[in-house]
Structure formats: C-alpha cells, structure tokens
Amino acid sequence: MELFLPIYYFVIAIFRPSLEQKKCFGKGNPMFLIRTAFWLSLLILLLPTDEQDQRVMYGNAESAVKDLRTFCTRNPDICEASKSAAHTFGQKAQFGAKMVMNFIQDKAGDGSQTVSSNASARRPSFLGSSSQNTLTDDDLKPVWSIPANDAGI
C-alpha cells in the first residue's frame, strides 16, 4: 500500500486540472483520453514487476544521482562554461528589467514623482491631490434633522 500512495498523489496532480473543467468526459475533449492513456502507460512502464526488478530500479536511480553529483568534477570546463553562461543570462535579465522600468517611467510621466509616507501623496493621480469643492451650500445641508421636541426620544 505504501508504494501506491505516491502513485495516487501523482495521478491526482496530473489529472486535477482536467477534472475541474467539468467537461473532461463530455463531447469535444478527446485530448483527455489521449493524455490519460499516455500517463497511465508511462506509470505502468515505470512500475517494477518483482522485488529483484525493484532493487535494480533503485540501484539505477542511485547511480544516476551519483553521476549528476560528480558531473562537475569530471567535466570542469563544461561546468565553468555553464556558470559563465548563467552569469551572462543574469546580467541580460537585469539589463532588460532596467530597460522595461525606464520605459514604464518614461510613459508614466517625467519621473519626478517621489515616494512619500504621506497618505495624500499616495492617492491615485485621477483622484487629484485635494478636494475639488464642487458641492454647493444646499448640497452640504442634511436632508433630515433631529425633531425639535424631545417627545420622540
């Protein structure tokens, strides 16, 4: 039973998006059947048939992990080139992000806006920085009033 619990979680994780769409078994979704057949075939292919086969599978997995761990000691030139490529990629990503930020700031305005802790400075520009004072004195008067005598209280 312990072997099948991770398999159950794997199958649920793969098919959950399809099951949530509510049309996985209806017309117009043949890809669900193809996807189901593919993942079940792959799952059956990976299952060991007996204990000896299971030991061989675990041994192969351990040797693959060991091979990955010692890759840089066996191939230092490839690892150095990969580190250099990753560093160059990081620099390009930072430069691209700066270009996008400069573009957004240029489109947003002159860039003279500063960050302030004042609540009125954080208001959106379409609300304005102060009141527009468009209400008249009649608008400011309440429609209701308290009764003049205290008999209603």
How would you describe this structure to a colleague?
With 153 residues, the chain is mainly α. Among the domains are: 47 residues, no CATH class; 44 residues, no CATH class. Helices cover 61% and strands 0% of the residues. The chain contains six helices and no strands. The chain starts with a helix and ends in a 13-residue tail after the last helix. The relative contact order is 0.03. The model has no long low-confidence stretch (mean pLDDT 75).
Distinctive features:
single chain; 153 residues; mainly alpha; 6 helices; 61% helix
Envelope shape: elongated
Tally of helical runs = 6
What integer value in Å does the Rg equal? Answer: 33 Å
List the secondary-structure elements in sequence, H or E: HHHHHH
Provide the residue-averaged pLDDT.
Answer: 75
Chart the SSEs and their pairings.
Blueprint: H1 4-20, H2 30-46, H3 51-69, H4 71-74, H5 76-108, H6 137-140
Helix pairs in contact: 1-2
Summarize the structure.
By secondary structure, this protein is mainly alpha-helical.
